[in-house]
Every structure is written in structure tokens, then in C-alpha cells.
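Blinded run. Sample ID left blank on purpose so nobody reads anything into the name before looking at the predicted structure. Input follows.
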Amino acid sequence: MLGIVKGDIRYDALATMVDAKLSSELVDFYGIDVLLLPFGGIDAYYNIKNSKLNILDILKFNCVKTIIVGNANNKLKDLCEVKNITLVELLKLPQFVIENAKLTSMGIIDFLQRKNLAIHDLKILIMGYGNIGYTFAELLDAYGCNFSIYPNTKEEEKYILLRGFSVTDWQDFDIVVNTIPANIEMDYEVFKNKRILDVASAPYGFDIDKIEEYGISYEIYSAIPSKFAYISAANIIKKHIEKFL
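Blinded prediction complete.
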């Protein structure tokens, strides 16, 4: 039996697709052998993130053979090793990452078009060319958009140029979409009178103090698949956990 620790809305949808117990209460986790945690996993004290549950309490009353999570910290990895539990990190599975990145990129476009302006009417600067940066750029190219890409590494720059996309020169853009999960050292003057949409994971791409100092329009947009198309997001999770059920 699969036990799902209640997380965002895609977990609610997933619970309708598979035989599972979905809850945020310890009393409901009984008789499970597979445990699905929120993507953030656990903290240093074994507390399950975004819940009031502690994973040790769940393991005490169940014979859990497999734990599924987005990313696992060392605490969870060590716990699984000691208890001989199979640990599955979804964000380490290449095919899951690709499908999730595509859905995320669709969600970014949906978000940007909510102000009655079509995506091809925006001049977009993408920061980073990882999974999300790559899939977002491909969609923008299909829409015939005006965009350029800021590479985070020399290797990214090489692949941007091989693909035939423009490397940014910081001169002509309306909005920045950041996908780099690290504060970037640069002159924040270039962002004045621009809009930044940060879709990276923590610690995000910008120094908040500098953002406020320069009065830059800045938004963090996280957990995009669950906000954009939570049933599709649940389908992706289901597809990649079925073999463990």
C-alpha cells in the first residue's frame, strides 16, 4: 500500500489515480510499504517538510520498503541505508526531470500571458540553460518569440550557440526569467525598469536586498506544474512511481 504525505494539489490528484492513503495525520499511516514524501523531503530533525509529521513515527508503525521523494538530503539517505529502505529521488530520474521541465515551461508561458499580452510580444531574457532553460527556449522558439539566453557556464554558452540561439548582451529585453538556483553576481543596474520572474529553486537567483535597493519588479513563481496543470503533474509522478508500487 502506498502512503502519500499530503502536499500540494498534485498529490490529491495522484491519490485518485492509484490505490493509496493520502493524509497529513499519523493515525492514517498504517499498513503501508511505500511512502511518498513532499518533494522537499525531510529536515535535519526528520520532520517531513510542509507537514506536522515526523518520518520516524511513520517508520515505527510500518514496514516501509520504499521511500519516494523529489530530492533527498543526507539525513534521509542515511536513514534509508540504515533501515535497508529503497530510496527513489524523482528529481534524479532523467526522464522525470525532462517531462517535469516541459510542464514547468508551459506553465511559465501561461503565467506570462495572463496580462493580455501574447508571449511573442515580449522580449525575454532567459537566465540559465539547464533543464528548464532549455525546454523554455525551445517553446519560445516554436512561438517565434524574441529571446536571448544568459549562460551560467561556458558549456551552456557552447550549447546555446550550437543550437543557434542568441547569447544575451543585456541591451534589449522586457522581462527576465531566471532558472539558476544561486545568487548571481552582476550589476543590478541592468534590471532597473525591467521585470524579473524567478522560477529557480531556493536560494533563487538574486540578492533580495539589492532587488529592493534598486526597486526592481521581482516575483518568485514556484511549484509551477501543480499550479499550471496539477492533473498532468500527477500523471507524470504516477508514471514514474508505478514500478515501485
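Unblinding after everyone has recorded impressions. The mean pLDDT is 95.
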